[in-house]
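Dear H.,

Thanks for agreeing to be a second pair of eyes. The structure we're designing against is below in token form, covering all 184 positions.
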């Protein structure tokens, strides 16, 4: 069975390898993003209280970001957030392949779990409902990992291409999204 902590390590390497920008503001968004948690989308996340305190204390976002990365409680809250809101929703503990679970998890964090699960369902030929139901789990757990990896990466790239086609301002993320899709 897949292990959340192993997939979270991959996500951390992809998203949060530089402590100076763990806390940042994206050009196309309002509010802060800390370790991928977007303040406007998740205003009730308890970690924002810690972030706010650090911003008051350190003033500069890069310095606050570095200090926040050292805060054990905040890191625990980040892990709990991702487990509850992404991993558990997609029942990824029930996926046999660590690689396949990581693919779905990492894409789901960026695109939403419904989108990520539907992409998996397209690859494995399951009903497209965006939920990791019994049919999806059974088919995914029988599907060849290498084939899943190749086809799933294409699904990710198609998703990002559609986003950019709808909103050309998002093109600034194209290289990062492509790299992310083939990194897992």
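And this is the sequence the design step returned. I haven't edited it by hand at all.
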């Amino acid at each position: 069975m897949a292990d959340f902590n192993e997939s979270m390590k991959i996500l951390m390497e992809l998203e949060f390898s530089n402590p100076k920008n763990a806390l940042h503001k994206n050009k196309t968004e309002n509010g802060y993003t800390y370790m991928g948690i977007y303040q406007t989308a998740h205003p009730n996340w308890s970690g924002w209280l810690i972030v706010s305190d650090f911003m008051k204390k350190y003033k500069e976002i890069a310095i606050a970001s570095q200090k926040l990365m050292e805060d054990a409680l905040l890191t625990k809250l980040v892990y709990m957030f991702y487990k509850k809101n992404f991993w558990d929703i997609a029942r990824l503990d029930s996926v046999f392949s660590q690689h396949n679970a990581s693919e779905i998890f990492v894409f789901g964090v960026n695109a939403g779990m419904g989108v990520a699960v539907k992409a998996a369902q397209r690859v494995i030929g399951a009903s497209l409902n965006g939920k990791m139901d019994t049919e999806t789990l059974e088919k995914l757990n029988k599907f060849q990992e290498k084939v899943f990896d190749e086809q799933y990466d294409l699904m990710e790239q198609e998703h990002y291409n559609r986003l950019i086609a709808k909103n050309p301002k998002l093109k600034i993320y194209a290289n990062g999204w492509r790299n992310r899709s083939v990194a897992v």
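Two observations from my side: The beta strands are 23-24, 33-34, 37-38. Residues 4-85 form one domain.

Warmly,
E.
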